[in-house]
């Protein structure tokens, strides 16, 4: 367990300064700047992204009627991929695929894809499901558009898009919360009795936002590494580009390596790219940003990323306990965090997901803790996800699994004594260390050197900032993947 912590709550100036050359074409702001510098009209930027997203493997040279100045600018300073998939690992049950991604300067991160289907979603209940009256109300989704480009469109286009969005919302609104279970928590335990989703399989990508992490959460493999560097927006988006070669991605969770709100601008830009209807067009509610509670950024997120889901990694019901598990809580105290959460919800009107790693022996998972947590969260529009600690995954850490029955008892107290929406996570992909907090350990926990020869990985996810979903369907998918994935087809580990 890590005892010394370097809290880096907001300041992102520490760590390795990185300037990519060439830059990633998926870095929206950088591309905009390049267009501006050569006098190319900005309107061609979304046209290019629309083409690249619709035609994986194509380049800006293939975009119809693309200005020569823009092509020259991109040729001079940008690449379709600045990252390479070094290794693709697939879990034995086929549900999880882990991508080891090498950055341009040799640093490495991991992205995890988990795939869920309808049957898996409703399995694994540990007690009878709650009655329909006890189920959380479905939330209304939000639009996918930022509004900044709506003025560019004609009224007819807007109407058509509105109809399409409404249709999609009609299809999906009932399942917003279910998607979260699929994406982040897993079980249908709290979904029993609800209609089954008819959309078939859906995949979730868990992305990393930093190499290492400064927050030092004591249960987290990434937290033991310290902070090395921020990823650029383009490097974050490239994880999605690579993952699309593995599976169709419907959800993205910023729960991989790093505290996303410590790399705020890159995360904001990447989220914009992922959710804008001209680009990847993911529904905002299906993109989840996780944080241990960087309060100023959390409130900024409410304004900058409207409609995007927030997951708060709480892990303790009191300030005293929390600062021993999540050291950054010394800077962002629990009372201020809960007030910020209230303000966030006042501004966004969105349900917030709360991550709670159940750490034994009795660290934060006794019935007394459950009552404290229930009292803290009672009356709030939250969904608590209990994550039982699995010591097999991180044997070097001084935690144990919760005692038998402790998680179920904890759940019952929250749900039935305090009316707090709550579910229990079942891990996926454990045999490839694709579950919470393990990725870095498998590769030795060292950060690769800048020359790319340092070996090991910077990948890794914390119990809250972690986990993803999806599987590698078959080799044909890899063959249709972008170059970075395709060339690694031989590295697939089939469990
Ligand atoms: S749990 Fe998240 S915030 Fe905490 S150290 Fe791990 S990656 Fe960082």
TrEMBL record:
Stretch list, region Disordered: 121-177
Entry's Gene Ontology BP terms: rRNA base methylation; tRNA methylation
Cell inner membrane recorded as keyword: no
UniProt KW keywords: 4Fe-4S, Iron, Iron-sulfur, Metal-binding, S-adenosyl-L-methionine
Lineage top rank: taxon: Eukaryota
Database matches in CDD domains: Radical_SAM (cd01335)
Gene3D superfamilies the record matches: Aldolase class I
Annotated ranges, domain Radical SAM core: 198-431
TM segment ranges: none
Cofactor(s) the protein needs: [4Fe-4S] cluster
Keyword DNA damage listed: no
Composition bias type Low complexity, residue spans: 153-168
Name of the featured protein: Radical SAM core domain-containing protein
């Amino acid at each position: 367990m890590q005892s010394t912590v370097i809290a880096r709550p907001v300041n992102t100036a520490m760590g390795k300064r990185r300037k990519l050359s060439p830059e990633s074409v998926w870095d929206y702001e950088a591309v905009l700047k390049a267009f501006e510098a050569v006098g190319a009209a900005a309107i061609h930027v979304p046209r290019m992204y629309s083409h690249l997203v619709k035609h994986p493997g194509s380049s800006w040279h293939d975009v119809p009627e693309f200005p020569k100045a823009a092509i020259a600018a991109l040729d001079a300073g940008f690449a379709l991929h600045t990252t390479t998939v070094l290794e693709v690992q697939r879990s034995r049950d086929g549900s999880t695929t882990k991508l080891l991604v090498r950055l341009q300067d040799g640093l490495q991160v991991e992205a995890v894809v988990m795939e869920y289907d309808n049957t898996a979603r409703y399995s694994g209940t540990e007690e009878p499901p709650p009655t329909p009256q006890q189920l959380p109300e479905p939330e209304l989704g939000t639009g996918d558009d930022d509004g900044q480009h709506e003025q560019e469109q004609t009224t007819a286009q807007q109407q058509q898009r509105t109809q399409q969005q409404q249709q999609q919302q009609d299809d999906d609104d009932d399942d917003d919360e279910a998607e979260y279970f699929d994406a982040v928590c897993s079980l249908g335990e709290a979904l029993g009795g609800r209609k089954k989703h008819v959309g078939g399989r859906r995949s979730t990508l868990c992305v990393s936002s930093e190499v290492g992490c400064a927050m030092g959460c004591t249960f987290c493999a990434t937290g033991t590494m310290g902070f090395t560097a921020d990823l650029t927006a383009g490097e974050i988006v490239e994880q999605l580009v690579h993952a699309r070669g593995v599976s169709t991605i419907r959800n993205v969770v910023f729960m991989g390596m790093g505290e996303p709100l410590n790399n705020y601008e890159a995360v904001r830009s990447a989220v914009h790219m992922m959710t804008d209807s001209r680009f990847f067009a993911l529904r905002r509610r299906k993109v989840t940003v996780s944080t241990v509670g960087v309060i100023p950024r959390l409130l900024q997120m409410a304004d900058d990323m409207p409609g995007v889901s927030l997951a708060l990694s709480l892990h303790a019901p009191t300030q005293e306990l929390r600062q021993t598990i999540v050291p950054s809580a010394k800077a962002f105290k629990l009372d201020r965090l809960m007030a910020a959460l209230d303000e966030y919800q006042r501004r966004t009107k969105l349900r917030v997901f709360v991550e709670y790693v159940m750490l034994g022996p009795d660290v934060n998972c006794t019935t007394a803790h459950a009552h404290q947590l229930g009292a803290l969260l009672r009356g709030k529009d939250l969904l608590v996800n209990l994550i039982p600690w699995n010591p097999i995954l991180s044997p070097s850490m001084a935690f144990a699994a919760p005692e038998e029955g402790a998680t179920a008892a904890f759940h019952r107290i929250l749900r039935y004594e305090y009316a707090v929406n709550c579910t229990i996570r079942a891990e996926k992909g454990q045999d490839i260390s694709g579950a919470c907090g393990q990725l870095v350990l498998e590769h030795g926990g060292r950060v690769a050197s800048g020359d790319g020869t340092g070996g090991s990985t910077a990948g890794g996810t914390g119990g809250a900032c972690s986990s993803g979903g999806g599987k590698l369907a078959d080799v044909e998918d890899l063959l249709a993947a972008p170059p970075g994935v395709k060339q690694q087809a031989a590295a697939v580990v089939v469990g």
